[in-house]
Amino acid sequence: MSPQVGDEWLSLRDAAELLGMHPATVRLWADRNELPSRRTSGGHRRFRRTDIEARLRQETELKPNLASQMLIQNLLGRVRLDFTDGTFDKLTWHQHFDDAALNAYRVLGRRVLDLLLRGLNDPAHRENLRQEASQLGTEYGTIIRRSHVPVADAVRAFLYFRTIMDEAVLQLAEVRGAREQDIPWLESLYQIQAITNEILPSLIEAAVPPQETPS
């Protein structure tokens, strides 16, 4: 590889797209010196491609443990079942989401699952994960505001999926816990709650325009 390619510098947005992360997360990593960067004369961040690719390999090489694999499979199975058996169509809050909001929620939902997977396998970076969760909440709230979905229904949607997550852990603990005492199901539940607890406040703040905030 030529020196020019190895020393290619990327903007914050380009680096975030390459990593599959939100720019706010990449900025946080740079602020904490977890990801090398430099600033241009105009104050803009630049990231060397080789450093980004090294971080990407590091993220990819994290091997999910048995508990997280089973948990994510359980979550996906429950959500697919609710979609296919008509459960969602019976929920009043679901009727207020248009196609654009639902599609955006699906994209963000995959990012939430990725966040949970990393939280279960790499709890040492819990504070970073909470920051990402808060940013996801802001993105959820922005979608809600643009799609004119009532905030109460957005909260109901969040609590619905949050309940699915909690139930998935408790069901696995009940069914498999007796045979697999080494899997920390309750610790997994605490980690999920710690991450998802950051989403709802940010969602509400972004969904409610400042002039509508109760005094």
Automatic annotation (TrEMBL):
Keywords: DNA-binding. This is DNA-binding protein. SUPFAM superfamilies: Putative DNA-binding domain. Gene3D superfamilies: 1.10.1660.10. Residues 9-59 form the Helix-turn-helix domain. Pfam families: HTH_17. GO terms for molecular function: DNA binding. The keyword Iron does not apply.
